[in-house]
Structures are given as C-alpha cells and as structure tokens.
C-alpha cells in the first residue's frame, strides 16, 4: 500500500516534467537521449548541474545521492540532470568527460564550472551557490 502512494499518477507523472512544485526528487532527472538533454539542460531556464556517472563507478555511488540532496535543498533554484556515460557516450565525448564522476554547472546552455571526483557537502554547497549566484 505504501509503495503505491510513492508512484505519481496523473498529468504530473509524465517524464517530461522536470520542474515540479515540490522540492526533492523532482529537481533531479535522468537524461533519456540527446534531444532530451537539449530540451531539459541546454534550453533550461534554470541553472543545471549535470552529473556524468556510471553504474560501475564507486565514487559516483557516493557523490550522486549527496549531490541530489544538496540540489533539493536549493528549493528549485537549480535542477540536476544525471547522465550515464555508458548509455550516452556521445554526450560524454561532446562535454569532454574523461573520468567519472564529472559534474558540470550549466547556465543558459553554457558550461560555467565543473569538477571531477568526490566533494563533501560544504564544497558542493559552495559549487551550487556559485552557480545560482547566491
């Protein structure tokens, strides 16, 4: 019964909705393909944190949830796109990702900052505040 309540229903359940009204999970989405990346990252009206990761990457498993939590704390001022480099090699090559995790900060379709590897919450908060301009 509890699992059913976690599954969104209705119009807000469509995968194309990156910007929900509730903070939390809706601030993060998985990139489906190149055109999805173009629509939801490059053309985003909000700043976007792009997490290039891989299933086999240990540090990614540590950074991913930490970064999601920090993005959710920004209350909708920034969104997070997750890009699996094994599923989207073309995007990884286009954005010169040579190691994972690589995290890009994008504003108006441009990369304005990036880091590679694990960061602690204080470092992530500083990274996000710089992106948002807070």
UniProtKB/TrEMBL annotation:
This is Thioredoxin, mitochondrial. Residues 1-25 are annotated as: Disordered. Belongs to the thioredoxin family. One of its GO terms (cellular component) is mitochondrion. Keywords: Disulfide bond, Electron transport, Redox-active center, Transport. Residues 17-133 form the Thioredoxin domain. InterPro entries: Thioredoxin, Thioredoxin-like_sf, Thioredoxin_CS, Thioredoxin_domain. The keyword Oxidoreductase does not apply. The keyword Electron transport applies. SUPFAM superfamilies: Thioredoxin-like. GO terms for molecular function: protein-disulfide reductase activity. It comes from Oxyruncus cristatus (sharpbill). One of its GO terms (biological process) is cell redox homeostasis. It holds the Pfam family Thioredoxin. It comes from the Eukaryota.
């Amino acid at each position: 019964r509890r699992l059913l309540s976690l599954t969104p229903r209705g119009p807000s359940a469509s995968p194309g909705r990156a910007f929900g009204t509730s903070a939390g999970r809706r601030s993060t989405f998985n990139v489906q393909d190149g055109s999805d990346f173009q629509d939801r990252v490059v053309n985003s009206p909000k700043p976007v944190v792009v997490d290039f990761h891989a299933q086999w990457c240990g540090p990614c498993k540590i950074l991913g949830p930490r970064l999601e939590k920090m993005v959710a704390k920004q209350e909708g001022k920034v969104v997070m796109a997750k890009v699996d480099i094994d599923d989207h090699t073309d995007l990884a090559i286009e954005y010169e990702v040579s190691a994972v995790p690589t995290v890009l900060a994008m504003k108006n379709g441009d990369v304005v900052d990036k880091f590679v590897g694990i960061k602690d919450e204080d470092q992530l908060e500083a990274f996000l505040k710089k992106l948002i301009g807070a």
